Amino acid sequence: MNCLGTPVVLAIAGASLLLVLGVGLLAVLRTASARDWFIAGQRAGLLATALATMSAALSGFVFLGGPGLAWKLGAASLWIVLPVGITPWLLTRVLGRPLRDLAGREEIFTVPDVVAWRWRHRPTTLLAILAVVLGSVGYLATQVLALGLLGEALLGTREWLGDGSLPFCMSVGLVAVLAYGTLGGMLAGVWTDLVQGFVMMLTGVLVAGWAVAGAGGPATMARSILADERFGATFLHPLGRLGPTAAAGFFFLFSLGVLGQPHMVHKFFMLRERRHLRWFPLVLGGSQSLVLLVWIAVGFAVPALVARGEMSPPARCDDAMIAWLCHGAPEWLAGLAVAGALAAIMSTADSFLNVGAAALVRDLPRALGRPVEDELSWGRWATFFLGAGAWLLAWIHQDLVALVGTFAFGLFAAGLAPLLSVGLHRKEITPRWATGATATGIVLAVVLEWLRKSPWRDIVPGIAAGVPPAAIALAASFLVVLAPVVLGPGQRRDSR
Amino acid sequence: MREAPGSSPQRAGGLFPAAALALLLVLLVGANRGGVLALLLLPLLPLCVPGPRPGRARRWDHFLRWGFAIVLLVGIVAVLLLRSPAALAAAILLLWIVPLLAGGLLGVREEEDPR
């Protein structure tokens, strides 16, 4: 791990961090209203919006956890990545147009705003707020812990701070995000996301190219993996180390689940012109694919090098990326990889700070009939308290935080995706069915996730077979929201 | 309650609810034979996308949705039938790159009929 603490690596990562901070603080000067703070003044163009969506969607997990998951599951890990083929089109087609149009003519800043506008039903809105707040804090805690762990590896603070090292590095990382997130809100978020998006794409392409070339090219890598009995043909088959049911569950969750991710959906409110939606899927999907090259390239380069005896196996799955950087990457590339990972973590964190703060100071008081007068000031305070809450969660439950991050994606997916994707298009979805679908998604996501970690996991054979619990919750929530569509005319009368 | 902003003129369809129910049952049961069925249900997802536009653009939307479904079906069948690493190459090509380019270049048009 100490290979990352060299002057070159520190200089590149530090320069990237300073660039982001500079851009973020510049955006602070342009933030004058709640509209600027919550939806970047609705002035963002195609490139800014699409890259902000990409950098918010792809967290540090892609750089650190992805290659580790590929080391563990082989090609089967790609069932999380493959949905990128359809999700940009799906997201834009299903939600982009209605949400952009809505934000253009109404004062719509957030996902709970959309729910409140559509159904004008307090329980449905409160459930949407609950999902957004719980998920945001969970996601934020994961990002804060990731910042701490990366900071420790980079600065080598454990040697001179001991047990105080992780909280110190978590605090430094959080303060850096809060510095522009608190003052500049989403305007600063979009500006910094643009810079971070370019850093992530550059990192993705260069790291992937270096990893594949260093391992001898795709054909040599495949031959090396196939020849080693520790990996073999199962490692390279998409269904090899994951049964078809679990693979289907991952594909289903990560394709339809994006329709409920507020940090992605939120970006449509910022789009300046509707015509930008035309090329949105291509820019979003193309940029996501460039970054995800890291997952595939390093994920297969490490086993190929290990199979040929040129590299020691990583001690833990999550060490695969850092082990590869220390093994075969030049210092400048290691510095760029760290900068890319930092950019991915910070861009996701600032999006959730904004989304969570909006839910607390705008959506919740409005849903309770007591709107806040100065939403801009209160939003800044809420950002600070959300950051502090996430820091505490990460510190108290360090061992569980990675699970919390996964759970947060599932909670958003099961709680919000059916509500938004079907509810915004079908008039049959009455408040009663909307509330039922959201409650079903949230409750099942929580209960099944708890069941998965309990001794009684065999009660649901699918979970024992590796199906993500949130996929089951998502399917159940879709069934509830689709029930009035199937039941037909009687429900339509009810909706009027 | 307000009218849905993206209201679809489409009649209530039973395809998506049936697919969601089948997926739910298979995911709950978790047997491998059911898993193959679940994988074969995935190409239905693009067909269930709500909000096809009215008029001539509606036909274009349906054409695209069927196009996506067929590419995904070919990709899933290839993954099921081929051995590695050909199955891996087929998955990356047919489940990732081809749909991404199709969705990016053709998938979202404004109100005019692109033909």
Q: How would you portray this structure in words?
A:
The complex is a heterodimer of chains A (496) and B (115). Chain A has helices spanning 7-29, 34-39, 46-57, 60-73, 87-105, 111-119, 122-155, 158-161, 165-214, 218-227, 232-236, 244-256, 262-265, 280-307, 320-328, 331-367, 375-396, 401-423, 431-452, 461-464, 469-487, 489-495. By secondary structure, chain A is an all-alpha fold. Chain A has one domain (7-491): Sodium/glucose cotransporter. In chain A, helix 18 packs parallel to helix 21. The longest helix of chain A is centred in the middle third of the chain and has 50 residues, at 165-214. By secondary structure, chain B is mostly helical. In chain B, helix 1 packs antiparallel against helix 2 (32-41) and helix 3 packs antiparallel against helix 4 (86-106). The radius of gyration of chain B is 16 Å and the shape is flat. The chains are: A mainly alpha (496), B mainly alpha (115). Chains A and B meet through helix 5, helix 6, helix 11, helix 12 and helix 14 of A and helix 1, helix 2, helix 3 and helix 4 of B.
β-strand amount of chain B: under 5%
Q: At the fourth CATH level, what is the homologous superfamily of chain A?
A: Sodium/glucose cotransporter
Uncertain segments of chain B are none
Biggest sheet descriptor of chain A? none
Query: What pair of chains forms the biggest interface?
Result: A-B, 89 and 62 residues
Radius of gyration of chain A: 22 Å
CATH class of chain A: Mainly Alpha
Protein structure class of chain A? mainly alpha
Mean pLDDT rating of chain A: 89
The value of Rg of chain B in angstroms is: 16 Å
Shape of chain B: flat
Largest sheet of chain B: none
Distance between the termini of chain A: 62 Å
Q: Work out the strand percent of chain A.
A: under 5%
Number of strands of chain A: 0
CATH architecture identity of chain A = Up-down Bundle
Helix content of chain A: over 70%
Average pLDDT number of chain B: 80
Unreliable stretches of chain A (pLDDT < 50, length at least 5) are: 492-496
